[in-house]
């Protein structure tokens, strides 16, 4: 038994060490839940975009709507994991994603969780999903090419580092193939690539990953995937996660390429969330801020000024059209935001012209600023010859007899179309493209049969690598066609045609 004095001493000692404090936690209660969204009562001090935690199930969510008497949140887990009456806790953190060089070669979800079974993701820091785009003062004009390795694009619709170039067309016309070939072509060029799959089939994403792995391109690529089976909120934040990963490299003075495949499905996921949260629908049932959804994403692509490190983030958004309708709501929105578009046409695809690029409807608003002098030299003549060919081809369909000059122009145009065809997964270096296009626009293919264009391409490139490696190296390093280089090109193609065994090529 303690004596009264001892009890008093113990109490005095405990009271002396007591520091008053208040443990405050802001909780809310779920009052409605369903289809990936939850309405929560309470959380008066919550922030838009703040992460929430639902302790009972461990599910995460994000605040989406701040209303007068409740909060609308989107759920990142399965909808059945959260029930009415569950407690919701603020985390005080804005939704973020891990970024850094350690993400190269990894497949992650939009929250940064690994999906490839390779263990935890190594990252340098956490970045918010949404940040303000660089201002005009912090940018510089696009001046450095981002080569896709695709002849038709690099020559006539060039893309520069820091540009936003839309890839648009109906389904199954080769949009993703262009994006994948562009990633493959960045190997050993110091460009970090991020491929964001939004609402795609899991088999399609797996095929992209396999293609990149076979080409050795996964070493510089991060895959952010929110497939059709994932909840709409994850599909909604996926492109913003990809942009944040790319901005890490841009802000360090490096180059990054981000592909959003595709923003049509992204808009659908946003529409689903918005209508469930009772945002008023507008045109085609999309909420009125759908334009802002994509503009604030794509404006983050930029070429930074030298004072800011000179880094770049290039964006290649993909949009799917229905029956070629480029005047629909989402396509017109994204066309107006981007710096040009590559339009893929179903009729060209099914007629065997692949990539099925409609040169007349495709445009790059950066133009020659995103090309080397060598490519600009040969591409100017190429575009002119193709434009004349298209006019003559339409005229020739009427059965009108053409004069000899028009016939020659028509024949050259047909061969130019053939030489611009390209197999999947076979991007070409700038120097090889220049050599091929030079031979075509200078008329060396005019006497050949159309079907021999592919044979000429394979043989000539092999011939250049064996007999004229210095020529390719000179074009690659200088980026120009100097007088000596032009003479070497003339000699190489003339010598090759003389040595070819095929009679059509000797004509």
| Count of helix runs | 16
SSE-based structural type: alpha/beta
* Cα-based radius of gyration, to the nearest Å: 29 Å
Number of strands: 17
Characterize the biggest β-sheet.
9 strands, mixed
Cα separation of the termini = 118 Å
Uncertain runs are none
Please indicate the percent range of residues in DSSP E strands (runs of 2 or more): 15-25%
What is the overall silhouette? elongated
Q: Helicity level, as a percent range?
A: 25-40%
The mean pLDDT is: 91
Question: Which features characterize this protein?
Answer:
alpha/beta; six-stranded antiparallel barrel; nine-stranded mixed sheet; single chain; 507 residues
Task: Describe the 3D structure.
The chain has 507 residues and is α/β, with parallel strands linked by helices. The protein has 16 helices and 17 strands. Strands 8, 10, 11, 12, 13, 14, 15, 16 and 17 form a nine-stranded mixed β-sheet that branches. The radius of gyration is 29 Å and the shape is elongated. The model has no long low-confidence stretch (mean pLDDT 91).
SSE layout and pairing:
Layout: H1 4-16, E1 27-34, E2 37-42, E3 50-54, E4 59-66, E5 71-75, E6 87-94, E7 96-99, E8 107-108, E9 125-128, H2 151-156, E10 166-169, H3 175-185, E11 191-198, H4 202-214, E12 221-226, H5 232-250, E13 255-261, H6 263-276, H7 290-298, E14 302-303, E15 312-320, H8 329-337, E16 340-344, H9 346-350, E17 363-364, H10 373-396, H11 404-419, H12 430-441, H13 453-467, H14 469-478, H15 483-499, H16 503-506
Parallel strand pairs: 8-12, 10-15, 10-16, 11-12, 11-13, 13-15
Antiparallel strand pairs: 1-2, 1-6, 2-5, 3-4, 3-6, 4-5, 7-9, 14-15, 16-17
